[in-house]
Amino acid sequence: MTILVTGATGSVGRLLVDELVAAGAPVRALTVNPVKAALPEGVEVAKGYLGKPETLPEALKGIDTVYLAPLADTVHDFTKLAKEAGVRRVVALSGSEADDPPENSSGVEYAIIEKAVREAGFVWTFLRPGAFMNNTLGWAEMIKAEGAVREAYGDARITPIDLGDIAAVAAHVLLTEGHDGKKYTLSGPTAVSQKEQVAAIGTALGTEVPFHELTREEAEKVWAAQGMPDEITQWLLDGFALLSEYPQEPTGVVQELTGRAGVSYPEWAMANVDAFR
């Protein structure tokens, strides 16, 4: 049975397509620009986008199972059209705070998506990763310009996950039984502080990259100058403050489901070192 992958050229969706193709699964990939998508041979390509519901009916024809990329604005359009097309099962990419999302956090949109999928009556599974390792690519320009990273709460310890591990879990869930009604909280294999992440980037570069600790007030000014809304700034800084006292713990779900430990942050830094040069 063909699996529809929405957001098939997105950060997780593109990797998921590769995982499914490698497993021999039939895939239909939803993408805005099929010509530029450069998807693997044998993948059926459907032109469309979740944000344009009028493009979905054709893509949903004959589909039993959908991997749903997160887009809260049109999720109710998707669920309506998917039910009309006979879709039975939805595996949705969500987030770790979907059950009780703080105001102004991304968890609010994830909660909307999960509720819409549940209420539509699909057989569902929710994948809930926390922070992505790729988020630290935001340090790249600072490292190139200054050779250092300036952030607050350097001792905040999180369990960031590699995008490839999310895709591997998604493929496993899509291709195997026993995941109906499950909410899988995904993390990397170890907790790592911001200081340790910067040190790992330095090791990958072959040079020391100092971490300069900002006060909360200094960080507020820096992020305000970058155009970040104050409510988002406060939410992020509150989170880092909490993680400095109460570090995250790995969930172990990636290894439990895939049978292998996830990518560690030092491994990720080495694989992505060119972004920081």
Task: Give an account of the 3D structure.
By secondary structure, this protein is α/β, with parallel strands linked by helices. It folds into two domains: 3-129, Rossmann fold; 133-159 and 189-249 and 260-276, Rossmann fold (3-Layer(aba) Sandwich), CATH 3.40.50. It is 42% helix and 16% strand. The chain has a seven-stranded parallel beta sheet, with helices on both faces. It has a two-stranded parallel ribbon with strand order 7-11. Strands 8-10 form a two-stranded antiparallel sheet. The model has no long low-confidence stretch (mean pLDDT 95).
Structural descriptors:
2 domains, 16% strand, Rossmann fold, alpha/beta, 12 helices, two-stranded parallel sheet, 277 residues, single chain, globular
Termini gap: 44 Å
Across the major sheet, the strand order is: 3-2-1-4-5-6-9
Question: What is the CATH architecture assignment of the largest domain?
Answer: 3-Layer(aba) Sandwich
Silhouette? globular
Q: Into how many domains do the coordinates divide? A: 2
CATH topology name of the largest domain, in short, is Rossmann fold
Secondary-structure class:
alpha/beta
Strand percent estimate: 15-25%
Continuous helix count: 12
The Rg value, from CA coordinates, equals 20 Å
Percent helix, as a range, is: 40-55%
Order of helices and strands: EHEHEHEHEHEHEEHEEHEHHHH
Using the coordinates above, name the CATH class of the largest domain.
Answer: Alpha Beta
Q: Give the strand tally.
A: 11
Overall pLDDT metric: 95
Q: Kindly report the name of the CATH homologous superfamily of the largest domain.
A: NAD(P)-binding Rossmann-like Domain
What characterizes the major β-sheet?
7 strands, parallel
**Poorly predicted tracts of residues:** none
